[in-house]
């Protein structure tokens, strides 16, 4: 009888230990607000918005300890609109992230699935559009550099290193998944960051290869099952984005600067963000966007923060040289560790638009019919 009780007790201990080695976490963020825009396609608008700062999402994150510092990991993350309950990211069930892989405390992690690119991973945290201090509506015009994560990379294999005394690096490759076109709609990216006390620096590069069919603004990606499909920002045969940035903390204050450049070849239109490639707006065979962002944030108290950014964008579109000046301000107050309320506003002025048909764009709001646009949002965020 004593042996039976001992075996039962030991079995319970081992079962508890085995259970403790694996974990699955349900998490999420809900961002809802009311937004006023003075000119959206020629009309003022007052509407409910979802994700004005951070996209609403819920997800499952899991890990299994395999021993020796090695873990099996996975993430499944869904994006949705809190305003109407619909799926985000083109109706995908787990459109924000969906990957599985192995992680080592010594060597880093290798994951496979739908994932963020290296520009988002390494440079995004230094720009206000990539953080909780500005988010979606602080994105650079049309989110041309993807710092706001407008698209993810499908069919991708990603490596992210461990943290080596503040230095981290990574690389990613997204397969075209097309038997007769290995490079048709593939993507790859690399990035690195370094943290030393109050100083953070980062740099990253992203390239998208897309074979394009059709002509003019009616062109579309010819491989819809490739690395970037359905949520791509531009319709172009080739996109190259690179950038670098830094920020420095002075007690409760942080200031930073980010530069990015996006170049497009065989370009025919803007398919995401403010306008569609089918509405007659062409951007020419070659296009370029240079973005210069100066940003800062300050914690007035542990609960109250202020943040602001100024971005100057110098573009080249089919021989025209438009320029965009963008100012964004935000204040947020934490009601608890998981809930805060915020007020933020944006102003964009566009100039030298020529015959492009463009106006002033604010990401997540739309594009104005004039060279100026103003938007303001009051909202609430809850994390779980």
TrEMBL record:
Record SUPFAM superfamilies: Porins
CDD domains from the UniProt entry: gram_neg_porins (cd00342)
Keyword Thylakoid appears in the UniProt entry: no
Subunit structure: Homotrimer.
All residue ranges annotated as the Porin domain in the record: 8-352
One BP annotation, GO: monoatomic ion transmembrane transport
Membrane-topology descriptor: Multi-pass membrane protein
Pfam families xrefs: Porin_4
Span of the signal peptide: 1-20
Entry annotated with the keyword Transport: yes
Location of this chain's protein in the cell: Cell outer membrane
Biological classification of the source: Bacteria, Pseudomonadati, Pseudomonadota, Betaproteobacteria, Burkholderiales
Gene3D superfamilies, sorted: Porin (2.40.160.10)
Protein name per Swiss-Prot or TrEMBL: Porin domain-containing protein
